[in-house]
Amino acid sequence: MADPTLADRPKAKSIRPLAALWPFLSPYRKVLAAAMLALLLASGAMLALPIALKGLIDKGMAAGSAETINIYFISFLGVAVLFGGFAALRFYLVTWLGERVVADIREAVYRNVIRMDPQFFEVTRTGEVLSRLTTDTTLVQSISGVGLSIALRSSINLVGSLVLLAITNLKLLALILIAMPIVIVPVIALGRKLRTLSRSSQDRIADTSGLAGETLNAIQTVQAFTLEALNAKRYDDAVEASFRVAVTRTRVRAWLTALSTMLVFGAITLVLWFGAHQVLAGTMTGGELGQFLLLAVYAGIAAASLSEMWSEVQRAAGAMERLVELQQAEPAIVAPPVPIALPPYERTAAAGRVNFERVTFNYPSRPDSPALDDFSIDIEPGETVAFVGPSGAGKSTTFQLLLRFYDPKQGRIRLDGVDLSMADPLDIRHRIGLVPQETMLFGTSARENIRYGRPTATDAEVEEAARAAAADEFIRALPEGYETFLGERGTRLSGGQRQRIAIARAILKNPPLLLLDEATSALDAESERAVQGALEALMHTRTTLIIAHRLATVLKADRIIVMDQGKIVASGRHEELIASNPLYARLAALQFTDGAGA
Question: Apex CA 352: angle with CA 347 and CA 357, to 5°?
């Protein structure tokens, strides 16, 4: 089963979530190895500079040899060229690696999220998912590319500097090692605090994204009820809450940077004071002090960089933890280990036998209220069955279960003799065509929106489906015809035009089982007559289940199923039910005769 909510999962208390990066890094091991080689060579060139400085002072300047000085300065220039070249190569490789890894993470997370069932989206806000795909992946990108390189470079420079410092003067190194815990302990403590604040900041950003997304997707409702000021106030409050957390996080990070820098360079100053006295005492040469000075600066910069990177690592670990939660989330509806294949069908032959066997189902958000209660029905191939009943009777739930968006609590549902729980959901949905009451169009062309019914369809097949759905005329009248961008959620079309696009999708898919959820409810009388003819031709050779209140649709159904409180209360033809069932007679009077929907 899917987890009830991502926010309730326990938070990691270490950087272990970053281990989940390895599966994304491992395919690019060669690039990583090349970057590490460039890193090692650049660091080696950098560490060679203090040694050259020592020779310059002790063997060149002290000896007064111009030739020796020239040789060492040429060496300096050569080392600088090597350092610059390998540093540039390292930067390119690690930047490419970071971009590539974050692209792979986004793709993997999105592939998993898009297969989640409706139960997951009942408790997970879309804005939260989008925040993780954008903000969190950006944080991970820094640590998997340039950040990783900086951390490794600083580590190499720190270790290399310490080794060379030990060779140069053990007493001075001992002072540095004594000072290290004084630097590291406060940095780690503040780093943990920073991580907690970073995750809280990311959560607040997700809240603002979710709130904005909900409002903008319902902008006409917001404006119709003059709720602009109220929603602006709610968004302002969410942004201010995010700002306060971000300021607190920034303050802690500033203290971390200041404290680490002061401690590191304070320790270096103390050590250099001691070294200067050794030079005066004659136990250390000026070149050795210069070498030690440069190495100590390297070590100080590396340690400060590592302390700074530690906060980035903390933030990236929190972000990776949130991404892993999405990547590893499991849908409640999955294919069994060895799914039973649905029997093959010919598109010209009748198919689509449906059986509900004593099905009981409760929505997860309403566990005490059954949407279907001991529901049984047998529907033969090619039969047209209409479901009617008051709101909440369970009509739409039958469609939800047939599409296997949910599994029943009790009982079984069969499609062409196969228990849906034993079949692959993709196989089930492949042979079902849905025309929903609320059509969802995508931000692409009219042609591509219809082609969602069958992605492999040719342009000619798309246009043929549009003609059958009485959509061809208005599509060709658009500024760019079939290539016209329809806007987000199809905002450039009317409700009736959007519904005809949905009908064209179903016609293009040409499935053996058709589900019509008030498929003509948004059409005017003229369009309904045109589309009704197309639907009748489409329904002729396939099983069709209809949720509708339109009289013409119900009158031509082979059977009308009257539902109430999740149960079948009557079944028959229109005339029979008018005479025998009071609920149907009342619905007919209220909904069919007046042409009103429910």
Answer: 170
What is the predicted pLDDT for the residue at 412? 92
List C-alpha distances in Å: 265 to 15, 123, 172, 184, 268: 27, 50, 14, 13, 5
pLDDT at position 276 is 76
For position 355, what pLDDT does the model report? 92
Would you state the pLDDT for residue 183?
67
Residue 102: Cβ-neighbour burial (10 angstroms; 0-12, 13-18, 19+): buried
Say which amino acid occupies 265: F
Residues of the chain with CATH 1.20.1560.10: 20-328
Rounded to an integer, what distance in angstroms lies between the CA atom of residue 181 and that of residue 188?
Answer: 10
Q: So what's the pLDDT on residue 195?
A: 65
Give me the amino acid identity at 527. Answer: S
Q: Which residues, including other chains, have CB under 8 Å from residue 405's CB and lie 6 or more apart? A: 117, 118, 333
The encoded tokens of residue 214 equal: 């909900």
CATH number of 20-328: 1.20.1560.10
Low-confidence residues in the chain, pLDDT < 50:
1-12, 348, 593-598
What pTM did the predictor assign?
0.65
Asked: is 354-592 a CATH 3.40.50.300 domain? The reply is yes
CB atoms inside a 10 Å sphere around CB 438: 13
The residue among 9, 4, 29 whose CA lies nearest residue 324 is: 9
Q: Residue 331: CB partners within 8 Å, gap ≥ 6? A: 2, 115, 116, 117, 119, 120
